[in-house]
Design a protein that fits this description.
Helix 3 runs parallel beside helix 4. The protein has an 8-stranded mixed barrel with strand order 1-2-3-4-5-6-7-8, surrounded by 5 helices. By secondary structure, the chain is an alpha/beta fold. The protein has a single domain, classed as EAL domain (TIM Barrel).
Length: 250
């Protein structure tokens, strides 16, 4: 137990150092197939010093959730995202973790940064996955309803990867459905993508396809009515200054 405790203390110390000193926020542009112009961007965490193999972005999020440090990361991401919205007047989406979507403090944090930068709340989108609300649906729904009352948008991320219960889509106030990159290859998967796009249209939801890397993938999505794409075909995730240059070049 003593060894495990010391190991956890070391992990927490290292995490705190990464969060305070080595965490950066990148923005991956999203492209509208409907208007042929930039639609928005997703905020993603990256390490300033990427030498560490122990803590990569996904591992950082998992460890931060385990050791109750995820709120610190979310504050950094929301602060940078709202600042970027203020600077550009372009939509930015932020990923929200499983622990936060049922945390009542989340509402206050969102309000704090909307007020700090005096932004239009509809330009901010929170992305959640099915696994993040299925374990405590009542609390998640209560928070999502409050977030929607602020004017903030909600996206269902990685649709189709886990449960994909249509009951959740009808009960929660989603604005976007994000199609996971794993569905962009294979004949059967493409049939699923077409079905998701058709369903989203009938529910007045915008579809965003992630991980689009080729012209063929983009054309397939465009021909079948997907509204927005995100991926290396359009742009990789960019640090703040590069992101501003990218916007100005369009």
């Amino acid at each position: 137990m003593s060894i495990k405790t010391n190991k956890n203390i070391n992990i927490v110390n290292k995490l705190n150092n990464i969060i305070s000193e080595n965490l950066d926020v990148y923005f991956q542009p999203q492209y509208s197939l409907k208007t042929n112009e930039m639609f928005g961007a997703e905020a993603l965490i990256r390490l300033k010093n990427n030498d560490s193999k122990t803590f990569q972005p996904k591992k950082i999020i998992q460890s931060a959730e385990k050791f109750n440090l995820i709120e610190k990361i979310s504050e950094i991401v929301l602060d940078n995202s709202c600042k970027t919205i203020k600077q550009t007047c372009i939509k930015v989406s932020v990923n929200i973790s499983a622990t936060q979507i049922i945390d009542e403090n989340l509402i206050e944090i969102i309000q704090k940064y909307i007020k700090k930068y005096s932004i239009d709340p509809s330009l901010l989108t929170l992305e959640i996955t099915e696994t993040e609300f299925i374990s405590n649906f009542k609390k998640a729904k209560k928070n999502i309803d409050k977030i929607k009352s602020l004017g903030v948008m909600i996206a269902l991320d990685d649709f189709g990867i886990k449960y994909s219960s249509l009951a959740y889509i009808s009960k929660l106030q989603f604005d976007y459905i994000k199609i996971d990159r794993s569905f962009l290859n294979g004949k059967k998967n493409k049939t699923i993508v077409i079905s998701v796009i058709e369903m989203a249209k009938k529910l007045n939801l915008i579809t965003v396809a992630e991980g689009v890397e080729t012209l063929n993938q983009m054309k397939f999505l465009e021909n079948n009515g997907c509204q927005v794409i995100q991926g290396y075909y359009y742009s990789k995730p960019l640090p703040y200054e590069e992101y501003l240059r990218f916007i100005n070049s369009k």
